[in-house]
Amino acid sequence: MTHETDPALIPLPVRTECRADAPGYVALDERTTLDAGPGTHGTARWLRTALGAATGLPLADGTGPHAIRLRIAADVERELGPEGYRLSTDGSVAEAAVVIEGGSAAGVFWGAQTLRQLLGPEAHRRARVVPAGHDWDLPMVTITDAPRFRWRGLMLDVARHFMPKDDVLRQLDLMAAHKLNVLHLHLTDDQGWRIEIRRHPRLTEVGSWRARSKWGHRASPLWHETPHGGHYTQDDIREIVAYAADRHISVVPEIDVPGHSQAAIAAYPELGNTDVIDTTALSVWDTWGVSPNVLAPTDTVLRFYEGVLEEVLDLFPAEVSPFVHIGGDECPKDQWKASPTAQARIRELGVGDEDGLQAWFVRHFARWLADRGRRLVGWDEILEGGPGPGDGGGVGGGATGTGGAGAAARVLPEGAVVSSWRGYAGGITAAEAGHDVVMCPEQHVYLDHRQAPGEDEPMPIGYVRTLADVYRFEPVPPGLAPEAAAHVLGTQANVWTEVMENRDRVDYQTHPRLAAFAEVAWSRLPAPDHRDLAGFERRMTAHYPRLDALGVAYRPPAGPRPWQRRPGVLGRPLEGPPPNV
Q1: In terms of pLDDT, which residue wins out, 150 or 131?
Q2: Is the peptide bond before 387 cis (omega within 30 degrees of 0)?
Q3: Is the pLDDT of residue 18 over 50?
Q4: What is the Cα–Cα distance from 284 to 228, expressed in whole angstroms?
Q5: In the predicted model, what is the mean pLDDT of residues 318-342?
Q6: Under a CB-based contact definition with an 8 Å cutoff, are residues 531 and 539 in contact?
Q7: Are 418 and 398 in contact (CB under 8 A)?
Q8: How open is the CA angle 179-181-183, to the nearest 5 degrees?
Q9: Options 217, 260, 449, 511, the catalytic residue
Q10: What is the pLDDT of residue 24?
Q11: Quick count: other Cβ atoms within 10 Å of Cβ 518?
C-alpha cells in the first residue's frame, strides 16, 4: 500500500509515494557503493565529487544491498521521456539501497539531484559538517518524475557586469540543483564584449573594458569611476561548455547584431555608420539603456561577424549547443535613416525601409547558421520588418502589425526560434506561424525586476514580481491552439545585470524566485489560479536551508538584510501592475 507524501522537493515531482506498511529509513553509510550502469558514469562522477564531499562517504564501485544503482532504462524512456526518472529507496524493490533509473543519462542525473535533496541541506555543502560515521537517512519513497518542458532556461547577462568564470560555473551548479537545463549567456552588448575572438583581438583588448559605470539606473547622478571589464578566453568558454554538458545543461551564446554593438564598434570603428558619425571617437558605453550606435549594413560587417561566429561555433559544439542567439532587438534606426550607405543598401536589397534592413540582417545570419547545422534564436523583434525579396511579397506587417502569423512566417527562415520577451504576443504570433518559441515575458520572469514595493529594495527596477507572482506564471498562453502550443519549447528567466555589480547582487535578484520559476518550468502544475501556493511556500521553508548550504545570498522572505540594500541609489521602478500580455 502507498500513500502520497511531501518530502519538500523543489521542483515538485510528478508523483511521490511512501510505503505506509514499511515505515522507516534507508541509511547511506561507509558501506554505500555506486553501481553505475552503461551511460551513467557521468552521474557517478558527480555523486562522488559533490555528494561524496558533503557526506564524507567514499562511494566506491560495488553492487549489493548497500549500493546506489544507476541505470538507463528503456521503459522509463517510453513512459516518461529521456529526462524522466524513477527513484526508489525501498530496498524491497531491488537488491540495492537506492535505485535511480532514467530515460537517458540526463534523467539519471536529475534523479541524483533529487537524491541530494532527500538527504537534507547538509548534503549541499562542499565538505562534511557532520561527525565521521554519521548515517545519512533517506525516507523510504518511490518518486516518478519528468519535466513538462524541454527548454528550462536562465539567461545571464555577463556583458553589463562581467561575471568571472568561476561564478559562471557556480551558476551552472545552482541551475542543476533546480533541474534547469539551458544557460543563455549574453556575451556582447554596448557595455562590453566578453568572449575572445582570435582573429579580432581588439574585441577584448578594447571592447571588454569601460572607463566607468553608472551606479544605479541611467537617471542616477552617481558613477563608479573604477574601470570595469573582463572577458572569457577561448579555453574558459570550452571549460564552461564542458562543465555545463557534464550537468546536462546546454549553453546558448548570444552575439548581438545589429544593435547593442557599441563595444564592437569602439574596438573596430569600420563596423559603424562612418558616413554619419566619427566612429573613431566612440568608446565602450558607460551607461545603461540602448545606444544609438548600431552596425552598418555592409558586406564588411557581414564578413566580420561571420568570422566571429565561425569561432563561436567551434567553441560551442553542435551536439551540446545547437542554438545560437543573435539578439536582434532594440536597434535604433536613426543612423540608418541618415546614412547614404544604408539608404543605398535598402534600395539595392529591395527591403523597403530600415525595418526591412534589420530583418535582412536577421535572415542573413539565420541562413548562415542553418547552413552549418545550427538554429538561430532571437528576441521577438526578429519577427518584424516583413519578407525580403523573393520571400513572398511586400514589406511590413511584423509581429505587431497587420500581417500577423502569415507575415511572421515569411520573415523568418525555417528553424529560427523566437525569445518572446515583450509579452506573450510575439510568441503567439511565432508559434501560430510554425516557429518554435521560448516564453520569457518581462512582465513575469525578468528577475532583475524588484521583488517587493518597499523602499528597502536595492536599486528597484521594473514591476514588482514577488515569489508568488513568479510561481503563478504560465508559459503557454491560454487559448493557444494545440498545434501552436506544441511550438512552445519552454520558458526562460532573464537576469539583466545593469544594477547587479557582483555575484551577491545576482544571487539576491534570482533567489528564491528561481526556485519558483524552476517549478513552473519542470512540474506539471495546474492553471495559475489553482496552484498550491501554500504548499510551495511550505516546501520553501525546507529549501532555504539548502540555499544557505550552497552559499546563496538570497532575499529573505522578510526583506533584504542591511548589507543587501542600496540606500540613495536610484532605480527605475514602474508604477502599477504589469500590463496585460
Answers
A1: 150
A2: no
A3: yes
A4: 10
A5: 97
A6: no
A7: no
A8: 125
A9: 260
A10: 72
A11: 23
Which H or E run includes 370?
helix 354-370
Q: What is the mean pLDDT of residues 188-214?
A: 98
Model pTM greater than 0.90? Answer: yes
- Pick the catalytic residue from 189, 196, 254, 448: 189
Strand order, beta sheet including 15-19 = 2-4, 15-19, 141-145, 85-88, 98-102, 67-72, 33-36, 60-61
* Active-site residue flag, 330: yes
Q: What is the pLDDT of residue 94?
A: 65
Catalytic residue among 330, 353, 456, 504: 330
pLDDT of residue 412: 82
H-helix or E-strand spanning residue 201: none
Residues in the chain: 581
pLDDT at 96 over 70: yes
Annotated active-site residue 260? The verdict is: yes
* Contact status, residue 508 vs residue 555, Cβ threshold 8 Å: yes
Model confidence over 369-417: pLDDT tens digits?
Answer: 999 999 999 999 999 986 555 443 332 333 333 356 666 656 788 899 9
35 part of the active site: no
> What is the dihedral angle through the alpha carbons of 482, 488, 490, 491, rounded to the nearest 10 degrees?
-110
Phi, psi of 110 (to 5 degrees): -65, -35
3-state secondary structure at position 67: strand
Q: Give alpha helix (H) positions in 178-294.
A: 202-205, 234-246, 262-267
